[in-house]
Amino acid sequence: MHDISGVQSPLTGLVFWVGLCVLVGVVSGLLTRREISGWYAGLKKPSFNPPNWIFAPVWTTLYILMGIAAWMIWRKPVSRLRAYALAWFGIQLGLNFLWSLIFFRWHAIAGALGEVSILWLAILATMVLFWELHPLAGWLMVPYLAWVSFATVLNLGIFRLNRNR
Question: At what angle do helices 142-161 and 55-74 cross, to 10 degrees?
């Protein structure tokens, strides 16, 4: 990404990566928002289920941190490791988007549980690769992995309470 003078613009890259991550969240939210007050509201949930209002600020923060981490890796010199790291980032971002569709849009709680397990592994792979290239970028992925760990347990709890749906 370059500015008009042809010199690489760090700000343009940062806006791109953060924007990409936030866009995934926005599109995902738009595609599933009706299900939150409809189908999801009718599910039995575990006692540790957070209130709905908490999800938007948490995910916004996580998407921003993810975007900053990807930008830090993107700024590294071109290498095979950098390519793998950014490819895994793309994979986990796609899986992140897919989980919302599987769970909220398609009401496939068990399918979402399987998918979020794969997402967790993809985040871990991304985090490890990021760490190798830029330790801070790896650390920026830790809150995301922690939240998806919690989301996995929550998904399991919802599955167990709603098995017969």
Answer: 140
